[in-house]
Amino acid sequence: MAELPFGQGRWIGRESHGTTEALIGGWQLTGIARWTTGFPVSVANGFRFPTNWEFEGLATQVAPAVTGTTKNADGTVNLFPDPLGPNGIQAFAPTLPGDSGTRNSLRGDGFAGLDVGLAKRWKMPWRESHTLQFRWDVYNILNLTRFDVQSVSTALDSGSFGNYSGLLTNPRVMQFALRYEF
User: Fold this and answer.
1) pLDDT per residue as tens digits for the range 42-101
2) Percentages helix, strand, coil for the chain, rounded to the nearest 5?
3) Which of 1, 6, 142, 173 is most deeply buried (CB count within 10 A of its CB)?
4) End-to-end alpha-carbon separation of the chain, Å?
5) Predicted TM-score (pTM) of this structure
6) Are 48 and 57 in contact (CB under 8 A)?
7) What are phi and psi of 19, to 5 degrees?
8) How many CB atoms lie within 10 A of CB 102?
């Protein structure tokens, strides 16, 4: 939380009183920023069972894979710029019996968010200890969209290889509050 430098006894408007103080004094700004690197994800073998007949297992990476969130022509969003190309599904092969596959070789989007709050406090004229506070909080103010790698279709036999089905972030949300303190 940061008190803005406006109003009585502050850097700007040091000698303000009455209406001027009610307009420019008592402002506060708060915020929090979060940013993480990409989360790991593995490619599944599909309905091929290299270890036993219960667990699918992981695919084996045989070439470099390139990730980068891409919007497809049909409106879906994919983890790979070219999901069916040599740096997409062709970079993986089914794991042979007895092998273990490649675990967490890909990275998806990281998380990013910026939340900001602005507040104004007025001292009540009948008693100095009584105040009225107005708050405006905005969550995900930049309205960033990050997709959840845990929702990616990563099975080699999937027709929607690399498609996301869920978000990691929420859309922008605003809330307002009015609080009387005594």
Assistant:
1) 998 877 666 666 667 888 999 999 988 888 888 889 999 988 889 989 999 888 877 888
2) 5, 35, 60
3) 6
4) 21
5) 0.69
6) yes
7) -65, -40
8) 19
